[in-house]
Specification:
It contains two helices and no strands. By secondary structure, the chain is mostly helical.
């Protein structure tokens, strides 16, 4: 005969603990084919995620490159304008053509 009045009350007074249940391993309960199919589906989703991340990074790099090019062009234009203040216009054009030629030779 038990002195407990309800199944939720413990005899030792530790009511804040959750009641323990029997250990029943669940690893071998799923079949190999089912595990294989879940692994395939997770691998497919991960590959899709990787692809999407790579695409996003590529677009980000493209944006950064366009911004960098725009800044370089702006700096070059300002430099030529500064040169034009000091020098004759024809000389500035000659220097510009020479620098362009050198840039093409380097690349």
């Amino acid at each position: 005969m038990s002195t407990l009045t309800a199944p939720s009350l413990r005899k030792n007074g530790k009511q804040w603990h959750t009641p323990r249940t029997a250990f029943r391993p669940t690893r071998s309960l799923t079949s190999y084919t089912k595990r294989l199919s879940t692994q395939k589906s997770t691998a497919a989703t991960k590959s899709k995620e990787r692809e999407m991340k790579a695409e996003k990074e590529e677009e980000r790099q493209k944006r950064i490159a366009t911004i960098r090019e725009r800044r370089e062009k702006k700096a070059e234009k300002e430099r030529y304008e500064k040169m034009a203040e000091k020098m004759h216009a024809k000389r500035v054009e000659r220097v510009r053509r020479r620098e362009k030629r050198n840039k093409l030779l380097k690349s």
